[in-house]
Amino acid sequence: MKQRATAEENNMRKEYDFSKAKKNPYVRQAKTPLSIRHDQETIQAED
């Protein structure tokens, strides 16, 4: 299995400055929230 490269190997900074970051204008927001309700029997079956 391939090992992940360290930050030094990728020349990545340890911290980035996101103070001037902007929201992506091309991403659509969800129109309505979605919640799914399960009864106890279903929850216990998943365990």
Q: How would you characterize this protein structure?
A:
The mean pLDDT is 79. The chain is flat and about 50 Å long. The chain has 2 helices and no strands. The two termini are 30 Å apart. With 47 residues, the chain is mainly alpha-helical.
Q: What coarse outline follows from CA principal-axis ratios?
A: flat
* H-E string: HH
Low-confidence stretches: none
Task: Tell me the helix content.
Answer: 10-25%
Number of helical regions: 2
Relative strand content: under 5%
**Over the alpha carbons, how many angstroms does the gyration radius reach?**
21 Å
Q: Termini, distance in Å?
A: 30 Å
Q: Taking all residues together, what is the mean pLDDT?
A: 79
Number of strands: 0
- SSE-based structural type: mainly alpha
Largest sheet: none
Question: What's the topology here?
Answer:
Elements: H1 7-10, H2 40-46
Structural descriptors:
47 residues; 23% helix; 0% strand; single chain; mainly alpha
Summarize the structure.
The protein is an all-alpha fold and 47 residues long.
